[in-house]
Specification:
Layout: H1 2-18, H2 32-35, E1 37-38, E2 46-47, E3 54-58, H3 60-65, H4 71-78, E4 83-86, E5 90-95, E6 98-99, E7 112-115, E8 118-119, E9 133-140, H5 144-147, E10 154-160, E11 168-176, E12 180-191, E13 194-205, E14 208-209, E15 215-216, E16 221-236, E17 239-254, E18 267-282, E19 288-304, E20 320-336, E21 340-355, E22 361-377, E23 382-397, E24 402-418, E25 423-434, H6 438-442, E26 444-446, E27 454-456, E28 464-477, E29 480-499, E30 505-524, H7 526-529, E31 535-550, E32 555-556, E33 563-572, E34 577-586, E35 589-592, E36 601-604, E37 607-620, E38 626-634, E39 642-644, E40 647-648, E41 653-661
Parallel strand pairs: 7-10
Antiparallel strand pairs: 1-2, 3-9, 4-5, 5-6, 7-8, 9-10, 11-12, 11-41, 12-13, 13-16, 14-15, 16-17, 17-18, 18-19, 19-20, 20-21, 21-22, 22-23, 23-24, 24-25, 25-28, 26-27, 28-29, 29-30, 30-31, 31-32, 31-33, 33-34, 34-37, 35-36, 37-38, 38-41, 39-40
């Protein structure tokens, strides 16, 4: 507790002296940033100033100015943590030393991806397009109370657009380096009680050259398609029924292997589809609100490995396939009075997984109940939050009929104090968990091949657990926005494999780790301060890990960098012209040398990556819309760098697009 109070004091002093003096001279400034409404932290609409955790919001303007083509690229630009980025369409993202699960069901990850508040069914952030996104809300730190298993490092909630105001539409086309072609179209709006928003994008790309000029074969893809649709009907005030559909489909995506062992013909086909049926309701006075949702989705990957090109000796010509069928439901009710907010609900999610490797079939079933509460005290300046969640978890190994079950209870408590309407102190403690997989709990199979292995599940496995406390300070005034957070996480009961006395392979709780660090964000529209007719907005955000130790091995955690920084500047005349220069820095990290075949620990170097986007409205037809010209340069300084060993990024790439909207 002393350490926590000391951190709050230090952060408060730091932020006070960091504040630029001219800000306080802006009388009557707009404090819209602190009043911004978010939904992820408490599963209901809340003002950001009442949130006790560290929440990052990537808004529609930032998404529009970004050169990112998918969620993975967007989060990499924002440097929220380590990005494990491969050619083609494969990317996992980390927060506070934990990471999403790239392959397989998202219950096996330690950072959770949501789409409109429900589990996305995948940890591969490359499968989620940015075209129809209203904003991205990121909880940094544990969120198991709200969302259950896997939300240890944090939660990334992708919120799609909902139609508002009069109908509008757009059509865009883009050509770029390495044969890149993209076409997009969409529409959004509201007519009487009916609202709609949707987009469709199709693109393709050839193999690329690295910054050193070397051709990296089999890194392109024949086709990627993304579709997003959000439809709703408000049959009574504050009562809306809606349908949300999303679809990702990628064909013949190159599976290149290491550049040094370039496989010329392996590829994968990949898809992710989901449909949600939602009822949002409430009383006219806003005292009670409720939501009911049912969703159904499918995530699928198929890897094809012809034997024509076989540089590493792994190709056998037999395709591998994994299919995950996901379905679930959510029901919650909230009571929001002047001085307190209470939300109670139940969640249910079910996964059925089929693979061509052992274990071939398994099922996960996870019902849960939660209660989240908030009190606004002392003239609403002192906010106390708390919550608890209970999860039951059952796995079924379909092949041999073995079933196992487990459960877990997750608590959270936090507090925030509004020193002024612009300045907030906050502190939070939360626990998170990741349930063991079906294989780890209930396996009983023998693999085929050169080294057949008998795997036996351990029904006594405990969930992996983490406990995190954090303290922070937020300051937002007029066009200035800043945040600073200290956090400390203890991670225990990590599940690892071991060999039993009988020679079988099984799992037990072995690992422990400790992660500690500081996160910060700062942005300021200089143009607003000087009353210019255009925006000039520099910004910076960073994550600095002061400690990231594997306590069992007494060494730094692998694939974890001490420092990630995103910085840049946005310029806009607010009348059709905008430009954004973004740079992100990734620090060095320890990795296992798989490419060299030594399997020893080596250090992967640091690098800085820069992207530039410029757009200008060149024709304005007033009520008939207008035409916008857009240019992008990715890897502006042509840096030879790689997020994953052996997979260098493309060299400097140019893109030119033309769009019509009305």
């Amino acid at each position: 507790m002393k350490k926590l109070l000391s951190c709050v004091t230090v952060l408060s002093v730091f932020m006070f002296f960091a504040l630029p003096v001219p800000i306080f001279a802006q009388e009557g400034g707009d404090v819209a940033t602190m009043e911004e409404v978010v939904v992820t932290a408490g599963r209901v609409k809340e003002k950001k100033k009442e949130i006790t955790t560290n929440v990052t919001i990537i808004n529609a303007e930032e998404i529009k100015n970004s050169s990112a083509k998918d969620l993975g690229e967007l989060l990499t630009e924002k440097a929220i943590g380590h990005s494990h980025r491969y050619p083609g369409a494969l990317n996992s993202v980390g927060i506070r030393g934990f990471r999403t699960e790239t392959h397989g069901n998202d219950l096996e990850g330690r950072v959770l991806i949501l789409v409109n508040g429900r589990r996305a069914g995948t940890g591969n952030t490359a499968k989620i397009s940015t075209k129809n996104i209203e904003r991205v809300e990121i909880i940094r730190g544990p969120a198991s109370v709200q969302y259950g298993s896997a939300a240890m490092g944090g939660v990334i909630n992708v919120i799609t657009k909902q139609g508002k105001d009069k109908p509008s539409a757009f059509a865009e086309g883009t050509l770029g380096s390495f044969g890149y072609k993209e076409g997009s179209a969409g529409a959004s709006g509201k007519y009487k009680a009916f609202d709609f928003s949707g987009s469709f994008t199709s693109d393709s790309k050839d193999d690329y050259d690295t910054a050193s000029g070397e051709k990296f074969y089999n890194t392109g893809y024949d086709r990627k398609e993304n579709c997003s649709l959000n439809l709703g009907y408000e049959f009574l005030p504050e009562n809306r029924i809606g349908v949300i559909y999303s679809c990702y489909d990628a064909d013949h995506v190159g599976d290149s292997g290491y550049l040094s062992q370039n496989d010329l013909d392996d590829y994968k086909n990949s898809s992710n589809r989901a449909i949600d049926f939602i009822y949002d309701g409430g009383t006219p006075d806003g005292l009670f609100t409720w939501q009911a949702r049912y969703f159904d989705g499918k995530d699928k990957d198929k890897w094809v490995d012809p034997t024509a090109s076989d540089p590493n000796g792994w190709d056998d010509g037999i395709p591998d396939e994994q299919k995950t069928d996901q379905k679930g439901a959510q029901v919650q009710v909230s009571c929001n009075q002047e001085y307190f907010l209470v939300t109670a609900g139940v969640d249910w999610v079910n996964y059925e997984i089929e693979t061509t490797w052992d274990p071939k079939k398994s099922e996960y079933d996870n019902p849960a109940g939660f209660l989240i509460a908030k009190a606004r005290l002392f003239d609403k300046k002192f906010i106390i939050t708390g919550g608890v969640r209970y999860d039951e978890y059952e796995v079924d190994m379909k092949g041999d009929g073995k079933k196992e079950s487990d459960d877990h209870t997750s608590p959270r408590v936090g507090a925030a104090y509004l020193l002024t309407d612009s300045l907030k102190l906050r502190a939070n403690y939360g626990e998170a968990f990741k349930m063991p997989s079906a294989k780890q709990l209930a396996a009983d199979f023998t693999t085929s091949g050169f080294w057949p292995t008998h795997y036996v599940g351990n029904p006594n496995l405990k969930p992996e657990k983490s406990g995190t406390y954090e303290a922070g300070i937020d300051f937002s005034y007029a066009s200035f926005d800043s945040s600073l957070t200290y956090f400390h996480t203890d991670f225990k009961d990590k599940i690892d494999t071991y060999t039993t006395a009988g020679g079988d392979t099984s799992w037990k709780n072995l690992g422990k780790a400790e992660v500690e660090g500081v996160e910060g964000e700062l942005s300021y529209d200089i143009g607003s301060f000087f009353s210019w007719d255009y925006q000039v907005k520099p910004y910076v955000s960073f994550v600095y890990l002061t400690k990231y130790k594997d306590k069992e091995a007494s060494e730094d955690l692998k694939y974890t960098s001490a420092l990630h920084v995103s910085y840049g500047i946005t310029v806009s005349d607010l009348d059709g012209f905008s430009a954004n220069l973004n740079l992100y820095y990734t620090g060095k990290q320890d990795i296992t040398d798989y490419e060299g075949g030594t399997y020893t620990t080596i250090t992967q170097g640091r690098f800085t990556f820069a992207n530039l986007t410029v757009s200008k409205r060149i024709f304005d037809f007033k009520e008939y819309g207008g035409i916008t010209l857009r240019g992008e340069i990715q890897n502006l300084f042509d840096k030879d760098c790689e997020h994953v060993q052996g997979y260098p990024m493309p060299g400097r790439s140019f893109f030119l697009g033309l769009g019509y909207d009305f």
